[in-house]
Amino acid sequence: MENDESNEVVEDLLHGKLKIIQKKEGYRFSIDAILLANFAGTKKRDRIIDLGTGCGVIPLVLSWKNPESHITGLEIDRETAGMAKRSVELNGLIQRITIVQGDVREIKAHVDVESFEIALANPPYGRPDSGRINPSDQKAAARHEISTSLDDFLSAAAYAVRYRGRIFIIFPAKRLADLITGLKNRGFEPKRMQLVHSRMGEKAKLVLMEGIKRGGAEMEVLAPLYIYDREGNYTPEIKKMYK
User: Fold this and answer.
1) From CA 69, how far away is CA 139, in angstroms rounded?
2) What is the phi/psi pair of residue 150, to 5°?
3) Count of CB atoms within 10 A of residue 47's CB?
4) Cα 107 from chain centroid?
5) 186-204: pLDDT as tens digits
6) 163 burial class (0-12, 13-18, 19+ CB within 10 angstroms)?
7) Where exactly are the structural domains of the chain?
8) Is 14 exposed, middle or buried (0-12, 13-18, 19+ CB in 10 A)?
9) pTM reported for the whole predicted model
10) Number of other CB atoms surrounding residue 177 within 10 Å
């Protein structure tokens, strides 16, 4: 099926440093992707894979932050992967970013084993039996474990990342126990964690986690991150992420 470009819009990213193609209606990237891209620590020439890349926002941001890295974005939805590819081309980043249309459950068909230093994942976070399922197929697949589960993403990362490589992941704080158990079951030791709150005084909504493949024990717990201040504006920490 061809892309419906009449339902697309080109928008600024990082205050105009980059451009990204998104749907006017339907699935659009959220602040989760920006949080994850900024939480990830990358080094020069890192080979990075973004599992479930969506419209490609994480590869775009990481490429801006680390121009010497190479990033592969894997996306199951053909139309969304097509938008991501065109965003890469629009920004002149085809030498740094590769978008692959494919399923994380079939990771072996798309990349070589242990060929990356880093994997990132913003997996579907809602169980199919919890909460209202979005009527939009793209939104539902992005937000609920309908076709893929947390373990599918962790299994793909375990295959793709080399020994002592790292995974960076964002997930609901209320499912922190599932995340830690899943990481350990797939050979990743949780090493760095940050809880994300909408506002000070409210419960944590999200958790950012770094795991190291076959890493040693002990985990660093960072200070909480707040998205909004008391007036409802982005906090200085969040504003800095968009610069």
Assistant:
1) 30
2) -55, -45
3) 17
4) 16
5) 999 999 999 999 999 999 9
6) exposed
7) 5-241
8) middle
9) 0.89
10) 8
CA distance 101 to 85: 10
Find the helix packing angle between 57-65 and 31-39, rounded to 10°.
Answer: 30
DSSP 233: S
Question: Which tokens go with 95?
Answer: 């030498």
Q: How far is CA 117 from the centre of its chain?
A: 16
Q: Which two tokens stand for residue 215?
A: 């890493």
User: Strands 18-23, 8-13: parallel, antiparallel or unpaired by DSSP?
Assistant: antiparallel
CA separation for the pair 36, 50 (Å, rounded): 11
Identity of the residue numbered 22: Q
Q: Could you give the residue ranges of the DSSP H alpha helices within the chain?
A: 31-39, 57-65, 78-90, 137-143, 150-160, 176-185, 236-241
Asked if CATH classification 2.60.120.10 holds for the domain at 5-241, the reply, yes or no, is: no
pLDDT tens figures, 53-72? 999 999 999 999 999 999 99
- Beta strands 70-75 and 97-101: pairing type? parallel
